[in-house]
Every structure is written in structure tokens, then in C-alpha cells.
Amino acid sequence: MQLRKENILIVDDDVNILELLQRHLQSWNYHVFKAISVKEAVTILRDTQIDLLITDLKMPEVDGSELIKFVSEHYPKLPKLVVTGYPSVQDSLVAIKSGVVDYLTKPFTKEELKSALDKSIMTSEGKVKPSTKSSEEKSKAYGEIIGNSEKINDVIQIIERVKDNKATIFIKGESGTGKELVARAIHYQGQFSRAPFIAVNCGAIPENLLEAELFGYLKGAFTGAETNREGFFQAANGGTIFLDEIGNASLAVQSRLLRVLQEKEVVKVGATKAEKIDVRIIAATNSDLKEMIEKQTFREDLFYRLTVVEIEVAPLRERKEDITLLVDKFLFKYGVEYKDRFIKITPEALTLLERYDWPGNIRELENVIQRAVIMCDKIIDVSHLPEHLKYSLSFSSETLQPLKVIEKQYIEKVLRVTGNNKTKAAEILQIDRKTIRQKLSE
pLDDT tens across 91-123, in order? Predict the structure, then answer.
């Protein structure tokens, strides 16, 4: 399999510099992505596997030093090269602390750029060690996984053990916990990172089409099959296929998946000849597959084939110490996207977020921050958060009391208001005097 060329992202608000860098990079056979703002750069980083970042520092709205901090936290293995026309001691210190491989001052020669580029690419290939970072900084992000909690560190340790082999992996966790991020980390942090990664949501594809989408089909195999088509498994050959919500697959599809796992081959719909493939399978679900096995809606033999290695992603309520880091990530992401600036959050609003139990997990938290960024000007306050979060703060587990205690306090309050008149208090409480006496004696 032919490996792709390195993808290099260049960020500069000067279009002439962008074109100059692009010409040089393309002459050296690199694939170039261009961005004239941090906002554009973040979008490209989110959607594309980038091998090297080259950025200016002085840019309008959000400057390059903030982009470097963001990349260092969320893409720690991505090498960074700074090119600037306004060097300063402070900028140099920021660059060094953020793990920048090299620092070029404009104007620079083609030879100087090539030298810095070669050094940066060698860093990305592990031949040169980048600037060291503290253990605390390293633990904030692993690929796109954000967190310092023990539960996240446990997940990362398992990923480190499995990322360089093609054992079948099963990820379980509630909806919104980031199971796909774990799958992507397994792929992109390992030695197969330049091979394809194909994510398939088995719950989003109609049952009658899932088989054809996964394995491909021949022309005329069914109504609407007008041409031969490769499936997701063929597209992922040499790399990784991520089957999300595997519990939604029909028994017929499950049977064919079992064949793929056993024989390492697929048969297109309408075909009789099998095709050999080399694919790592990562499956995930928020369903209870053991319960489905008991109900005979999921094959037990497939379950054991899929669960060679299991990774459980904890719900957000069990790792609340990660909420601040996740909030920072979403504030940067949506602040740049919607406001072209960095958005801050008040301590009171952050406390509310930390005390909420997040039944929708990280997906719900991201949604809340996205909405709050849109609604605020520069700072998110409690007023920008949904009402149900404020309600949860008023009635958090720390303030809840037994019903008998609340009832006693209310009866005593009514008696104080009525001057200890039990008859009047009974009317207000809509109970008789006997019941009041009984409750007071209790």
C-alpha cells in the first residue's frame, strides 16, 4: 500500500506569504492546506489529519500563539514550526514552552525553510525528540481525548497497549461519552495512522442497506444497484473500521461480520467470490449486548470475537475533574468559530457545570457550551446556561434532605406564622389537629 504524502497546514493572514510557502512546499512534494485565520486552521485540524503546522504569530482577532497552545493541548504529537516577521523574547518563550520545533524570522531563505522543515518532519517521525513537557501537560490530551482523571488515564493505558497491533477491540459506554474519539486515538496514535480510518454508524443506516454499505455490491444485486460498488470494509483495507452501535446490526449482518473476523475476507452482495482484506475492527455500543444475547438478538459467538480487548469509557458524572478541561476545549472551539475571539466563563457558571450530572455526557456538555458562546458577548455567566442546570444546582445531592426533615421544617414554619395556632395550621396544611399533634410528637 502506498503511503500518502505528509499534510502540512500553513497559517498566515498574509496571502503572499501563504502562496510563497505553498510553492516551496509543493516543490518538495508535500500536500498543503492553507488558512488565513486561526478559525480556519481549527476547522482544518478538526477535519483533516495534519502532519506539521506552520504558523505566523501576529494575526488579527486570535493570534498564532493561542493556536500553538491549542495544538499543544489537543494535538500534542503534532510538530509546530513558527514563522514570524515580529520576533520577541516573549513570543520565543511561548513557542519553546509549547513544544515548537523551530522558529523562523521573516524574511527567510528557501534553504532556511527547508532545514527547519526537515527538522520538524523528523520530529513527527520520532527521529528527533520535541521539547519536553511536564507530565501534567502531557496528560491533558491524548489525540482528541481530553482529561486528567484516573478513568481517562486507564483508557489511555489500554490504548497504548493495543494501538500498534490489529486485535479486535470493543468499546462500551453510554451515549455521548466519546467512544469514537477512543477509536480514532487507537488508530491515529499507532503505527497504522496513515492507513484509512472509516467510521460507520450502524444505527444511522437502514437495516436493508447496511449489508450492502459494509461489504459492497455488484451491479444488479438488488433494485437500485446500477453499478459495482466497494463497501466500507474495502475502503478501510490496510487500516481500521469503526462499527458504532453494532447492536443495531441485523442477525444476517452479524453472521457476515463473523465471517470477516474468522476468515479475514468479505463477499460483496450479489457476488460468489470472496476478497481478502486486512482490517482492524473496532466496535462500540451503548446497548447491553449480553442482554441482547439472552433475547437472541445478538450472536454470542460474534460477541466473543469482538471483545478480544474491551475498553469501557466512563460517563462524565464519574470523572467530573475533567469538566474544566473539556469546557476550555469547547470555549476555544466555538469562541473562534462564532465570535473570532476567546470566550471566558465565570467561576459561578463553571461551578454549576461541575455539579451537574450530565446524563448526555460530553455531547451534552459541548451542546451547552456551544449555545452559551452564541448567547454571550465575551464571558459566559450563569444566565447563559440552560434553566435545568440552574435547577439542578438548587437541588443538588449536597442540599437534598429526607422528606421527614423537610416536612418537619415546613410544619414548624406554619406554626410560627400562625402563632402556634394548631387549628389554623391544620387548615393551611389541609390536615386535622390530631395529625399535627402526631407529627410533632414524632
Answer: 544 554 556 767 777 778 888 888 888 877 776
Q: 164 — phi, psi (to 5°)?
A: -100, 10
pTM for this model (two decimals): 0.69
Mapping DSSP to helix (H, G, I), strand (E, B) and coil, where does residue 173 land? coil
Q: What is the DSSP string of 152-163?
A: HHHHHHHHHHHT
- Residue partners of 332: CB distance under 8 A and separation at least 6: 42, 66, 70, 342
Quote the cell numbers at residue 99. Answer: 513544544
For residue 228, give the 3-state DSSP assignment: coil
The C-alpha cell that represents 440 in the structure block:
410533632
Measured distance CA(22)–CA(10) in Å, rounded = 8
Task: Return the amino acid letter for 339.
Answer: K
Cβ atoms of 9 and 41 closer than 8 Å: yes
Q: Is 72 or 167 the better-scoring residue by pLDDT?
A: 167
Which residues contact residue 84 at a Cβ distance below 8 angstroms, ignoring those fewer than 6 apart?
Answer: 56, 57, 58, 64, 91, 103, 104, 105, 106
d(CA 229, CA 241): 17
Q: Which residue has the higher pLDDT, 310 or 339?
A: 310
Taking every pair of Cα atoms in the chain, the longest distance, rounded to a whole number of angstroms, is: 97
Residues 268, 217 contacting (CB under 8 angstroms): yes
Q: Tell me the per-residue pLDDT of 47-89, one tens digit each, with 9 for 90 and over.
A: 778 889 999 887 877 778 888 888 887 787 888 888 877 555 4
User: What is the Cα–Cα distance from 240 to 166, expressed in whole angstroms?
Assistant: 8
Q: Which three cell numbers stand for residue 291?
A: 442482554
